[in-house]
Automatic annotation (TrEMBL):
Species of origin: Leptospira jelokensis
SMART domains named in the record: cNMP (SM00100), HTH_CRP (SM00419)
CDD domains recorded: CAP_ED
Domain of life, per lineage: Bacteria
Pfam short name (any one): cNMP_binding
Protein name: Crp/Fnr family transcriptional regulator
Domain HTH crp-type: 139-201
Cyclic nucleotide-binding domain ranges (all copies): 5-125
Keywords: DNA-binding, Transcription, Transcription regulation
Annotated GO MF terms: DNA binding; DNA-binding transcription factor activity
A single Gene Ontology CC term: cytosol
Length: 208
């Protein structure tokens, strides 16, 4: 897999790729973009948190992901030259660095490191999407939670429990009930809202 030959960019490398770009601040609940908006820039989230979601047929929000610093936002739409396929709203006060499309094109032609950064970012998001599709199509509620915790990254496990429930298309009370069952089985622990996985093999048995 080609991503194995590309070093994972650290926060410093990501911000270096956006050096000289405009810094913008947003308040909680402000939108970065709406589904269908034309793409005119590429953004780097350097502080705060961003929820990306779509609306279903009943105008309910379906969360696709939560993004935390430092990461590029919606680079697939930028590279493909398509409108944003989803909406993005800040869940807390946040800061981004913004690179205009013309500058993106110039830097892609002259900066090999930026190309590697974009490739690595896209591969990670494709992996995340594949995991989400697998959960949503083939698993019951208990398996979805176990799968999320088994494959959880430090960023995903640091989300609020209501945000985790949203990602798994579960009601918060359903997620809380399942989490309690996993805790009683000694598979996880929760302290002050933070989840710690204690037994990954036990989670794997649930998936099997």
């Amino acid at each position: 897999m080609i991503v194995k030959y590309i070093t994972k960019p650290n926060p410093e490398a990501l911000q270096k790729a956006f050096v000289g770009c405009k810094e913008l601040n947003y308040d909680k609940d402000e939108f970065l973009f709406h589904s269908g908006d034309e793409v005119t820039q590429m953004d780097l989230l350097i502080n705060g948190e961003l929820q990306v979601f779509k609306y279903d047929g009943n105008m309910n929000e379906v969360t696709l992901n939560f993004f935390r610093p430092v990461c590029i936002v919606a680079e697939w739409a930028v590279i493909q030259g398509i409108p944003y396929p989803a909406s993005a709203r800040f869940t807390k006060k946040s800061t981004i660095l913004r690179m205009p499309l013309s500058e993106v094109q110039n830097r892609l032609h002259s900066n090999i490191e930026l190309n590697h950064i974009l490739m690595h970012s896209l591969m990670n998001k494709i992996d995340t999407l594949n995991l989400a599709i697998n959960r949503g199509l083939t698993m019951d509620a208990m398996q979805r939670v176990a799968h999320f915790l088994f494959y959880g990254t430090p960023d995903s496990l640091a989300l609020k429990q209501t945000q985790m429930a949203s990602l798994l298309y579960l009601r918060p009370e359903t997620f809380s009930r399942i989490l309690k069952q996993l805790k009683e089985q000694g598979l996880v622990d929760t302290q002050k809202g933070e989840i710690t996985v204690l037994n990954k093999e036990g989670l794997l048995k649930i998936l099997a």
